[in-house]
Design a protein that fits this description.
The chain is 39% helix and 13% strand. The protein is of the alpha/beta class. It has a single domain (5-181), classed as Rossmann fold, CATH 3.40.50.720. The protein has a 3-stranded mixed sheet with strand order 1-3-2, with no helix packed on it. Strands 6-7-8 form a 3-stranded parallel sheet, sandwiched between helices. Strand 2 (19-20) and strand 3 (24-27) form a beta hairpin. The termini are far apart.
Length: 182
């Protein structure tokens, strides 16, 4: 059985899927300017790409060559290909009507990583909305937000590195991360 490492973005979304160490797939949704850097970086780790964006103007073959494109909404796409234990989901939209449905699906799944782009203020609002959806503090603690390791990333390429580093650290674990957490 092949499982998935998902990285997801709705509004301006792109999804990248590929095999990582024969056990994990990467899925990233987002078609904004930093999506190309994330696709390139994820490609180094996985190999195949799948872009999910309901807006055909953003997820195009011109912008994302060699990428399988889907114009479904992320919650529809995730319903067809559920997240498993070796899956990750990354929401990058900054738009609750687009990010929250994917986050809800991820919180109900056994995926190993859930992340969301945005400031601390945006993340606090996100957690409050999801709390009203019935999720506990423990459930919500699974969401990494703001997403990515804190390396001072500014450019799309640096943000991609920070996100993939945090996903990898969560997947593989590290003594340093455990020490910081405790």
């Amino acid at each position: 059985m092949v499982s998935r490492l998902g990285v997801w973005r709705t509004h301006r979304s792109f999804c990248r899927t590929g095999t990582l160490n024969r056990e994990t797939l990467a899925r990233i949704n987002q078609a904004r300017r930093d999506a190309r850097a994330i696709v390139r970086a994820t490609n180094l780790a996985t190999g195949e790409e799948r872009m999910i964006d309901p807006r055909t103007a953003f997820a195009t073959a011109t912008r994302f060559p060699h990428t399988k494109l889907s114009n479904e909404w992320p919650d529809e796409a995730l319903a067809k290909e559920p997240l498993g234990q070796r899956s990750a989901l990354v929401a990058l939209a900054h738009d609750p009507k687009l990010d929250d449905p994917g986050l809800i699906i991820a919180l109900k799944s056994p995926c190993f990583y859930i992340g969301a782009l945005g400031s601390n203020k945006t993340h606090a609002g996100r957690l409050e909305r999801l709390k009203h959806e019935g999720f506990s503090e423990q459930d919500l603690s699974r969401i990494h937000g703001p997403i990515g390791l804190d390396i001072g990333a500014r450019s799309p390429a640096e943000i991609a590195v920070a996100i993939l580093a945090e996903v990898t650290q969560t997947l593989r674990g590290s003594k340093r991360a455990q020490a910081i957490k405790n």
